[in-house]
Write a structure and sequence with these properties.
Length: 273
Amino acid sequence: MDAPDASPEILAADLELAERVARAAGEGLMQRFGGLVEGLEHKASETDPVSEADREAERTIVETIRAERPDDGLLGEEAANLEGSSGRRWVVDPLDGTVNFLYGLRAWCVSVALEDGDGVAVGVVHDAASDETYRATRGGGAELNGRAIAISGHDHLATALVATGFGYDPEVRAAQSEALTHVLPRLRDIRRGGSAALDLCWVAVGRLDGYFERGGHAWDWAAAGLMVEEAGGAIDRLEGEPEGLVAASPALLPELIELVRAAEADARPSVRP
Ligand code: IPD
């Protein structure tokens, strides 16, 4: 499947659509934020929740994208998995940071990305609770609320502030926590914010120096990964099952990857990925 050439005009129209649907979902989520939780269920494990808030936000996004881009595919965290014929696919996390949202903590966001044959072309991460909207287009830079952003450029591992996240599968968590005992003493500190997309956006805007996590998904990483790259940072995958992602300045990335790999190799064989 070949995607049509992504001209600046096409990317601008797709960016506008991504931002519009992310904001619409964010408005609906803000109406529910702090209120009674409806339709709570659990997915992969009893620590992996989904509620009517996630589902409604996904419906809002999917309906508009399907109406305006009927030939595109769509992958959403909750239910959507639609084949397209255009060679393009929207990758959507309607509510990244679901646990924070359910507890009334403000670190959650809506993430919308568009992929084509060359990778991620457009990304929007909307942090509705803080009124912060991150946007990026491939080759066009990244911005926060309309102002260009750049990574911290930090290149010294021992003084780097690095975010990470934990999966919902207890075995993955066991491996992650063991690896952390090796990683933490070698950094300034670790942050676990609870939203991978926001962690990556905070790397893009220089609030964090790096991020690593094994076991995230395409919908957590697609839009915000582009944000990091377009803000001058670099990302790379950690091979293995489940896969991982590492992000930092281009100078710091190789050292951070080496640290994470060494930490995982140090973990007990029974919990290694
Ligand atoms: C989760 C968050 C969390 C990360 C997990 C994700 P969700 O997404 O991004 O920070 O550590 O790997 O699954 O479940 O809140 O959409």
